[in-house]
Amino acid sequence: KAGVTQTPRYLIKTRGQQVTLSCSPISGHRSVSWYQQTPGQGLQFLFEYFSETQRNKGNFPGRFSGRQFSNSRSEMNVSTLELGDSALYLCASSRNTGDRNTIYFGEGSWLTVV
Amino acid sequence: AQSVSQHNHHVILSEAASLELGCNYSYGGTVNLFWYVQYPGQHLQLLLKYFSGDPLVKGIKGFEAEFIKSKFSFNLRKPSVQWSDTAEYFCAVISSGSARQLTFGSGTQLTVLP
User: Fold this and answer.
1) Are A43 and B104 in contact (CB < 8 Å)?
2) How far is B104 from chain A (nearest CA, A)?
3) Which residue of B43, B49, B102 is in closest CB contact with A108?
4) Collapsing DSSP states into helix, strand and coil, what is residue B84?
């Protein structure tokens, strides 16, 4: 069974540009969440989607947004990129909203802002 | 808000040594607990998880963890480490009803010397 798939794996953007990252969850998983990983801040929660609805959002500025499609695939967007947005962006999926569901991570998208 | 503390930032061991990585969380209610591992250049992989029941849980690759509710701890152990265990280890918690939001510790870098 395929895991969580993220594209692109690596990208370089210029300050001020915007970027869209994509995530395909494990088949049958309806919850998709996004995390940012940096050496300084560690792993931080961005947002979580379930059935195309954002259910939870972390403490990030409005430049960070996301959405989920009817097939559970998700995208996140960062507008007006800043140097500090350089990070590994991880997508994760889980089956549903129950308490006994494990969260599985993709390989991540490495974003470098120059 | 919940938080997770991993007090060991970098642990260096020789092969065959025993390992214990500390993890403490702050949350008074029901929690689900996880340990993830990130090998160099790879994505986060689930080592083990605790939802309820037996507080001693066994995971992959010979790892185990013990949930001690009174101490708010979920320490990771392995009797005999191998060079291939060199990686970064993250403890994470979901509180009941937090909509699939993982709160991570800062991670522990484990280096195993051959």
Assistant:
1) yes
2) 6
3) B43
4) helix
Share of chain A above pLDDT 70, in %: 95
- Predicted confidence (pLDDT) per residue in B4-20, tens digit: 999 899 999 999 999 99
| Phi, psi for residue B68 in degrees, rounded to 5 | -115, 100
Distances B103 to A2, A35, B90 between C-alpha atoms, Å: 25, 10, 10
Q: How far apart are alpha carbons A79 and A32 in whole angstroms?
A: 20
A93 touches chain B (CB under 8 A): no
Instruction: Please give the pLDDT value at position A55.
Output: 87
**Span A11-54, pLDDT tens digits:** 999 999 999 999 999 999 999 999 999 988 999 999 999 999 99
> For residue A67, which phi and psi values (nearest 5 degrees)?
-160, 165
* Cα–Cα dist A67/A80, whole Å: 18
Smallest Cβ distance to A48: which of B43, B101, B106? Answer: B101
Place of tokens 């989607």: A49
Containing A32, the helix (H) or strand (E) segment is strand A31-38
* Residue range B34-84, pLDDT digits in tens: 999 999 888 899 999 998 899 999 999 999 999 999 999 999 999 999 999
Contact at 8 Å (CB) between A20 and A7? no
Contact residues, chain B, for A30 at CB < 8 Å = none
